[in-house]
Design a protein that fits this description.
single chain, about 300 residues, alpha/beta, 9-stranded mixed sheet, 11 helices, about 20% strand, globular
Length: about 300
């Protein structure tokens, strides 16, 4: 029996994917696992590298960049493991037996449908990984920087407990302790097969960003819990496959889609106002601090909102 099916979606990221796969196969595990690489039409020789260096990998060639969720779905439908681990190609496994130990934890916590480990920067500092569902009040606090203020994030449960673009406050300590969350980041996303069979696959209306929020929302609707477990750690080089402009505009687009699917219709215009307000605020603040190029990123986000 296969314990874990590891699924990696790749797009023109040959060097980092090679490093990721090396770290996976050098890891000493006492469980059986299979590895899928779902390649979204790479033109840099990614697929050829996988075929040549990692013949044990099940390579799935997609004809184009079909997106994060759909790319995962292609492999998730073929996975045979008791658990499916979605792993970003810009991650590096640094702990021996991480898969074995997290599977054991999940086996002992049968009400948990999804879990994730800590994501670390290359300097071993903590990244933000998930948070709480983006209600209107949380979006307002995020867009206005209010939830960046010290102690405010202890009074509420933020959409992003630690913001990569924050200039006021980074709550790294939050991510040093194990706890239940609403959603976790898709860079390391361990799904129980039983939960996946109930929830289904990623909603393919999402191209990239917020699809993991949507999936956790549907998972929790089925009665499953979502946990963040920093006892285990993985390096995540982060935004290598996207870039900040793509990340910001895609998150705005994803949030609108999430509201369309799961929220009352009257909330959509309020959400759009809050996103435009936040983008405008960032144009002014980051334009002064970081210059016109950064301001242009948020100008595009403003249009997307």
């Amino acid at each position: 029996m296969i314990d874990v099916s590891i699924v990696i979606v790749s797009l023109n990221i040959k060097e980092l994917l090679e490093k990721c796969l090396d770290s996976v196969f050098k890891n000493k595990e006492s469980i059986k696992f299979e590895v899928f690489v779902s390649d979204n039409g790479s033109s840099d020789g990614t697929a050829e590298m996988v075929e040549k260096k990692f013949p044990q990998v099940k390579l799935l060639r997609n004809n184009a960049n079909i997106g994060f969720g759909p790319g995962n779905n292609v492999a998730m439908k073929k996975a045979k493991g008791r658990y499916v681990l979605l792993l970003n190609p810009d991650t590096e496994i640094i702990q021996q037996n991480i898969f074995t130990e997290m599977v054991k934890w999940m086996d002992e916590h049968k009400d948990v449908g999804i879990s994730s480990c800590a994501l670390l920067n290359s300097d071993r500092t903590f990244q933000g990984s998930g948070g709480y569902f983006p209600t209107l009040i949380r979006v307002f606090l995020w867009m206005s920087f209010i939830d960046d203020l010290p102690f405010v994030d202890k009074l509420i449960k933020p959409y992003h407990p630690m913001h990569p673009w924050s200039f006021l406050h980074k709550n790294e300590g939050y991510f040093t302790k194990a706890h239940e969350q609403d959603w976790v980041t898709g860079a390391y996303y361990l799904i129980r097969d039983k939960a996946m069979k109930q929830v289904g696959y990623f909603d393919e209306d999402y191209f990239a960003y917020v699809e993991e929020v949507d999936y956790c929302y549907r998972t929790k609707e089925k009665g499953w819990k979502v946990w963040y477990l920093p006892k285990w750690k993985t390096i995540h080089y982060g935004q290598v496959t996207t870039g900040s402009e793509f990340a910001m505009t895609s998150e705005f687009k994803g949030l609108k889609l999430y509201y369309k699917k799961h929220m009352a219709s009257w909330k959509m215009p309020v959400l759009r106002f809050l996103l435009k307000f936040g983008a405008l605020l960032r144009i002014i603040i980051f334009g002064l601090i970081k210059g016109s190029n950064t301001a242009k990123i948020y100008a595009k986000a403003f249009k997307q909102a």
